[in-house]
# Entry
Amino acid sequence: MSADTAAVNLLEVRGLTKIFGSLKACDAVDLTIRKGEIHALLGENGAGKSTLVKMLFGSLEPYSGEIRWNGQPVKIANPNAARKLGIGMVFQHFSLFEALSAAENIALSLDDQTPISTIAAKAQALSYSYGLPLDPYSLVGDLSVGERQRIEIIRCLLQTPDLIILDEPTSVLTPQEADKLFETLERLRAEGKSILYISHRLEEVKRMCDAATVMRHGKVVAHCDPRQETAASLARMMVGSEVHAVVRAPIEGIETAEALLEVRNLSRKPATPFSMPLKNISLNVRAGEVIGIAGVAGNGQGEFFEAVSGEAMQLEAGTVRIRGQDAGKLSITGRRLLGAAFVPEERLGHGAAPRMKLSENLFLSRYATDSKAFLGPGGVVKESAIDAATQRIVQEMDVRKSARDPEAAALSGGNLQKFIIGRELDRRPTVMVVNQPTWGVDAGAAAKIRQSLIELARSGSAVLVISQDLDELFEISDAISVMHNGELSRPLPRAEATLEKIGLLMGGAEPGHVDHGLESV
Ligand code: ADP
Ligand code: MG
# Structure
């Protein structure tokens, strides 16, 4: 390489490959990061993004390929070696000790004997200069996810890296916290630092990044300038085919439609020291509408789903009503018999038994509610009816698989989720409650799932969707509520719900303030 390219290119990766068993998680990846740029690394779940950056940070060893740093070939044997070169990383999953303070956590990662008070002072100065205020003596256990991420970022900045890698940093943040992070990154860029930014949020990538590398199935499929692309063209590169936009026709006369799912003054004590109490939640979901529940993870969404689905029963029957009938003391099956369907967050184990075939999974979840269809006289299992229903669902939801009736575990995450949602839709439920419908699902499958939920509602059912993906909620919901600290805000009709209002509620703003104008907040 010439001296010129070394002057502008901080990092050059050529032919980098990583193999797990028989899977090429990274297949001859090329990547060039220039000095002072924010470079996006795009790709669907499982594309190989995390694997690639772990090799750059020395936490995975490449199978083959070359890494050049400032023009020089380097081997990055471990994260310490990466830090010494000037590569810092903010992880997708946090690696902090809850019982220690922010400063103590930072001290642990610096392998020298600097006194805590010095580290705390440095961390605080740095945090203010980058607009990420942080009290270095606060206990990590008391901090929000956004604040924990600040510690990770400050810990990384304290080592004055030239390249900062962030693996999906905004997936756990409110929109306002994400905006703060963008300001920080833009500041770092202005100082000449390079940033490798992993995200699947295309609007944010277009807004902030100077260059993008797109991966699919372990291979680089495109290098581009995201500012010259549209969200749709970026999605097409990631998926490899056209992603159909979800269509949502407006609904009329919803005020007078029948409430098919009613939650009335639902409270719940925490079942474990780590669960969130639910505080007097009330909500109606009417025939024809999709209601979305937004919220930062861990604010009671899981506890709410359990209470509505019957995984956790209530003491009073009237706290959950399905089609006008008290259901609070009914089991999951009891609630399903009233016409409700529930899709939990965890796909394997919870939504489907991994070692059972799709047809067996179908039978297991439906024999109680569809005994006429699947059981003959004397309890004989109607194999052909089960097989027909299985294939119908596969067809309807476009479930891609390698055998006619494989085990659930043999399907990719997105395809299994399409099957599970399809299995419930096939019952034509009058009430459908879904937790994280497209978590970790590729864009094509996600669009299919979202469209099918809207269509179910428009056919006269009540649909309730809990999701951490705000773009998803804005795409499918007729009204959006926010869960914060175990409380649920009044649903804001889609026309009134702005990203800013929902974001403020996610951060714990009083609903009254958000309703009555943002100036007062
Ligand atoms: P991304 O970050 O783009 O979602 P990953 O790099 O995490 O993708 O994963 C790429 C592929 O490698 C996936 O199919 C994943 O299941 C597989 N994979 C990742 N880490 C391991 C591992 N330690 N062992 C086996 N397979 C792995
Ligand atoms: Mg990843």
